[in-house]
Amino acid sequence: MTDPIRDEWYPVALVSQLGPEGRDTRLLGEPVRVAWHGGAITVTSGGRSLPSQQRYGHVWACPGTPQRPLFDIPEADQPGRRLVDVGLVRVKCSPLRAVENFLDIAHFPFVHTDILGAEPHTEVGRYDVAIREEVDEVWATKVHFYQPQAAKSAAGGITTEYMYRVPAPTVSILYKTCPPRPGEWDVITLFVQPLDEELCEVWPWMALFDDDTPMTDLIHFQQTIFLQDRSILENQLPHRLPLDPGLEIPTRADLTSVAYRRWLKRRGYTYGAQLVAA
Question: Do residue 125 and residue 197 come from a single domain?
Fold first, then answer.
């Protein structure tokens, strides 16, 4: 295993659900224990303390030596937002596949029918994608898509504007039209914990402007969306995400996926990836 993989930050627990008994889990194929110790949360693996921190409702750990700080989500500190810990979904797929699926707009009408998409509104219009060198992140902007129910707070169908951001190999952040507060963005994230190369745990988290919807309904709405994705993810072939051109044929709608794969390869992040045709 190469250093770039071990030197990233990964979610390993939800702070609000970490009881006195702690949590035993895995990270990159290695056993990890998350526990309270002297009033603080510690993360250990193989008798060694791992660098750790708490942010966005989660405990984050680095199996190696962090090369840069945990990515910043400024909206997490914005007054008036509701911070929603959605929980955990285990998925039998590559952690990179989980992130890539979150970046895919074209599947909305077919997998999330009458919620995030519906026929005949299936076309993905032109949008912009770039690897922003100054921050070393993948961004997709000017994404527009018609959605029957873009959010739990939405009263009907609207054309939703999206921005996608990939600040770390196993993290994706979505900024989307906020129905109750035009001019602001709802923030929906996917934090992925790689248990091994073909098994992961996914921790969705949201920062929303929504004063009316009960917290249980917000959580249920997002869980419903991701559980619809799970069966698709678990049946994708190859199981690992191909990084080399030609292993899968992209379309115009896949520009974000293409940039994500190129960015992973450039960074040397290959855990959960397929590099050559089988």
Answer: yes
What per-residue confidence (pLDDT) applies to 47? Answer: 93
Which H/E stretch holds residue 88? none
Q: Which amino acid type is present at position 107?
A: H
Model confidence, pTM: 0.88
Backbone conformation region of residue 209, classed left if phi is above 0, alpha if psi is from -120 to 50, else beta: beta
In a domain, 69, yes or no: no
CB 209 within 8 A of CB 186: yes
Q: Is residue 66 part of a domain?
A: no
In terms of residue numbers, what domain contains 57? 3-61
Confirm whether 17 is domain-assigned: yes
Omega before 238 cis (within 30°)? yes
Residues 124 and 261 in one domain: yes
pLDDT digits (tens, 9 = 90+) for 134-181: 999 999 999 887 766 544 545 556 678 889 999 999 999 999 888 788
Residue 32's identity, in one-letter code, is V
Q: Residue 18 is encoded by which pair of tokens? A: 């970490």
- For the chain, the C-alpha Rg in angstroms (whole number) is 18
How many domains does the chain contain in total?
Answer: 2
**Phi, psi (rounded to 5 degrees) for 215:** -55, -40
Q: Within this chain, do residues 264 and 192 fall inside the same structural domain, yes or no?
A: yes
Q: What does residue 216 show for φ and ψ, rounded to 5 degrees?
A: -60, -40
